[in-house]
Amino acid sequence: MKIVVIGTGYVGLVSGTCFAEMGNSVTCVDIDSEKIENLKKGILPIFEPGLETMVKRNLKTQNLCFSTSIKNVLDNSDFAFIAVGTPMGEDGSADLKYVLEVAQTIGTNMNSPLTVVNKSTVPVGTADLVKQTIEKQLKKRKLDIAFSVASNPEFLKEGDAINDFMKPDRVVVGTDDELVSKKMKNLYAPFFRSTSDRFIAMDVRSAEMTKYVANAMLATKISFINEISNICELVGADVNKVRIGIGSDKRIGYSFIYPGSGYGGSCFPKDVKALTKTAEANGYTPKLIHAVEAVNNEQKLVIVHKIINRFGENLSGLEFAIWGLSFKPGTDDMREAPSIYIINELTKKGAKVRAYDPKAINEAKEFYLKDNKNVTYYDSKYSPLKNCDALVLLTEWKEFRAPDFNEIKKELNNAIIFDGRNQYNEEYLAELGFEYYQIGKKF
Ligand code: UGA
């Protein structure tokens, strides 16, 4: 199949590369010429395990090409995937500016029948807008070319995106056209090795809604367990045990009920807010979804409250070593990372912070914590510890899971760990003489 992917951000780059890996002929297009020049050389704008090797391999076989112009690549293509960003607008709703600009460019440049597929996360009704925009351009050009607009929301997790794309739990396709449904099923068939029941076809609006509902459901699970963790602490229960107790019920399950310092990233915060906006725009005030966001905002600061309870309201003269800055392990992405809020709050109260993260230090330095002069950065996990007053764990990277606790104790002023991701065994740490503060269990 001949495929054009417009937008070489996270979703576009991963999707385009994986389609190429399956033998399709893919051109990824972006208006950012520097990005495209780099990609042609195999230099990626993001870190994602396995992606660079896959891009380089498919550049070599020429299954994958990069271009800044949509003009010549649309002709005789089977699919044009729209994978541009839908940033949060000022009022919290998704901003469709880029999606509709791409639709306009497609309408201005297409000369042969085409299936346009929306992969960007877009509110219900966007496929209709894309269709109208393309129709308008074709009419201006006095052309009558057959095209269809389908929705194919993406369910990739950062850090595991290649795996998610190559072995999907499901592929959701929204289309009102039986032929398009068949074409999409053929495109995805190689990704389902033994079964095709993971291909879920539905109408366009339900597919658009599915994306938001999936993310809102996952965010709800996290906020639910985080709220429970706060109650557990007050009543003298241990949320780590309660989590296992409830997860053993198959109807509940173990996944996405890990308590912590709240969810971050480019998806959950934005999508939860956008779903609220969609509901409100249609005359419904959501209570539960709204609460999911409110609980998450408060949860980010739970670890700060624990630090204040231990050291007092004024943190001047104290230094904290931070392990982990990215919003989750396996990525350098710091969008909406709890670490930003936690670190800024600590330094506002007078503390100094020494931070280490395996991948996200540049992001922190250059963007997210750029203005915070009370943060210094280190290039290995033990190096920031010397004479710090406590260690604070914020992202559960594998290299933090089984550290040398004797080394930590030797370096710190006090043997104190604040764990925002409940990674350690408290009995073991108590034996070693640590004060160990975690989420959802009173110290
Ligand atoms: C999320 C969804 O998991 C993907 O299915 C979806 O495709 C993607 O958003 C998207 O819309 O593009 P992602 O944002 O990469 O993926 O990250 P997750 O692995 O879902 O983690 C999100 C946040 O939840 C992280 O901050 C993580 O630490 C937190 N989390 C996750 C918890 O606090 N507890 C848990 O039990 C699980």
TrEMBL record:
Transmembrane segments: none annotated. Residues 321-426 form the UDP-glucose/GDP-mannose dehydrogenase C-terminal domain. Keywords: NAD, Oxidoreductase. SMART domains: UDPG_MGDP_dh_C (SM00984). One of its GO terms (molecular function) is oxidoreductase activity. Pathway: Nucleotide-sugar biosynthesis; UDP-alpha-D-glucuronate biosynthesis; UDP-alpha-D-glucuronate from UDP-alpha-D-glucose: step 1/1. Its EC number is 1.1.1.22. It is an enzyme of class 1 (oxidoreductase). It catalyses: UDP-alpha-D-glucose + 2 NAD(+) + H2O = UDP-alpha-D-glucuronate + 2 NADH + 3 H(+). It comes from the Bacteria. Gene3D superfamilies: Cytochrome c1, transmembrane anchor, C-terminal, NAD(P)-binding Rossmann-like Domain. Belongs to the UDP-glucose/GDP-mannose dehydrogenase family. This is UDP-glucose 6-dehydrogenase. It comes from Croceitalea vernalis.
